[in-house]
Amino acid sequence: MDEIKEVSLDMRDYIVSSGAETLSWCMQCGLCTNLCPWRQVTGEISEAFNIRKMQRLGQLGLEGFEGENILFACVTCGMCLVNCPRKVEIIDNVKSMRNTTVAAGFLPATLRPIAGSLHANGNPWAGPQEKRAEWQEGLNIPAFTEDTEYLLYVCCTSNYDTRSKKIAKSVVKLLQKAGVSFGVLTAEENCCGETIRKIGDEALFTKLAESNIKLFNGKGVKKIITTSPHCLFAFKKDYPELGGEYEVMHYAELLGDLLKEGKLTFSEELAKKVTFHDPCYLGRHNEVYDPQRELLQAVPGVELVELGRTKNKSLCCGGGGGRVWAEVPFGERFGELRINDAVDKKADILVTACPYCIAMLDDACAGLEKGDVLQVMELSELLCSASLPGGL
Ligand code: SF4
Ligand code: SF4
Fold first, then answer.
1. Whose alpha carbon is nearest atom 1 of ligand 2?
2. Do 19 and 84 belong together in one domain?
3. 86 C-alpha to center of ligand 1: Å?
4. How many Å lie between the centroid of ligand 1 and the Cα of residue 334?
5. Domain-ending residue, one of 103, 125, 160
6. Is residue 392 part of a domain?
7. Degrees, nearest 5: CA angle 193-11-27
8. Where in this chain does the record put each 4Fe-4S ferredoxin-type domain (predicted)?
9. How many domains does the chain have?
10. How confident is the model at residue 391 (pLDDT cuts 50, 70, 90)?
11. What is the pLDDT of residues 293-333, one digit of tens each?
């Protein structure tokens, strides 16, 4: 006979007090589960993870949600929020359930080194702090001062990862070409903390965020340009709770404005069929859909085609909520579906604007051996090659 599980209202109250204020609003209709990308793939994780059921377990304080393939499977993509009739803050509920589990000492083995590196180095990539600025060599990027208009905050991934450093370099070249007043603080910064907060380590997020806020305020930062939509989310939506109030833009938003003002032009022709993958944290979470498309359409020769699942219906790459470090078997990765979406549209280039999306889509493209028909590019890389002879 199955073990009898007991309802624990204390556990339910603990989850609610950790931030799941809308947990009781859920009426168990299951619309969220239907929209969840885990329903688009098969396999062990897909079978284990059901967001409707997970919330029911939370409502009753029942055990059973703590497993890695359940509690830590959510990519925080926000797709489920689009259709919830009760406007349940599903991601906040997931985050709170994770908080209670992480506070009890349970963190999946794949995420322990990430938390360890954030504690020790201030970034999740085990990179020494002094190497954070290595990619800047030869680019003549000034340090941020009170006379500088924007702080350019580069995502940890693009500070340390060889592939991702190209994103940081191309953003810098575009800003320089358009004459933007910007500077960096690089070696003094910590990770923005967005992902570790979604993973459920609230104390570590607070430590990172407070350190950044102290630094930014001390240097007189008022406006921030981010290279990653995840940093955009943290600075816009998380930092104000801790007293960090800034005007924050993803670089695509600023470049879109510069295009309209005639300060950015593209002279190099690119006769290619291009499609855009909306990153969840740029699109659904921050509602930035137009600038990136306007920029792509401004490149001579580019034919922009939309993917079937686009804008607020975009399919997650699989890299949010800490999942960029998860091990998902080949054949069960959302990124593979996304590559197939682009190939079905006969696109030559799949463009996106997020370092996590690039990592996941590059991986999927290589795994599916589609590199001969489809190129994955970050928006800044494509724009850089269209605005400067020779590109990067
Ligand atoms: S869609 Fe909303 S109300 Fe329906 S099960 Fe999901 S969270 Fe609950
Ligand atoms: S945020 Fe995304 S992955 Fe998480 S439950 Fe909602 S739809 Fe599924």
1. 76
2. yes
3. 7
4. 22
5. 103
6. no
7. 85
8. 24-88
9. 3
10. low
11. 999 999 999 999 999 999 999 999 999 999 999 999 999 99
φ and ψ at residue 325, rounded to 5 degrees: -100, 0
Judge if 125 and 238 occupy the same domain.
yes
Asked if the structure places residue 3 within a domain, the reply is no
Question: Which ligand has the minimum distance to the alpha carbon of residue 80?
Answer: 2
Closest ligand 2 atom to the C-alpha of 76? 1
Strand order of the β-sheet with 150-153 is: 182-183, 150-153, 223-226, 247-250
How many whole angstroms from 246 Cα to the centroid of ligand 2? Answer: 28
CA of 161 to the centre of ligand 2 (A): 27
Q: Which residues make beta-bridge pairs with 31?
A: none
Whose CA is closest to atom 4 on ligand 1?
29
Q: How far, in Å, is the centroid of ligand 1 from the Cα of 27?
A: 6
Long-range contacts of 232-235 (CB under 8 A, 24+ apart): 232/281, 232/282, 232/286, 233/194, 233/281, 233/285, 233/286, 234/192, 234/193, 234/194, 234/197, 234/209, 235/153, 235/192
What CATH number has the domain bearing residue 278?
A: 3.40.50.10700
Q: Which residue among 222, 257, 292 closes a domain?
A: 257
- Protein residue with least CA distance to atom 3, ligand 1: 26
26 lines ligand 1 (CB under 6 A): yes
Asked if 246 and 271 sit in the same domain, the reply is: no
CA angle 208, 136, 317 (to 5 degrees): 60
Tens digits of residue pLDDT in 164-184: 999 999 999 999 999 999 999
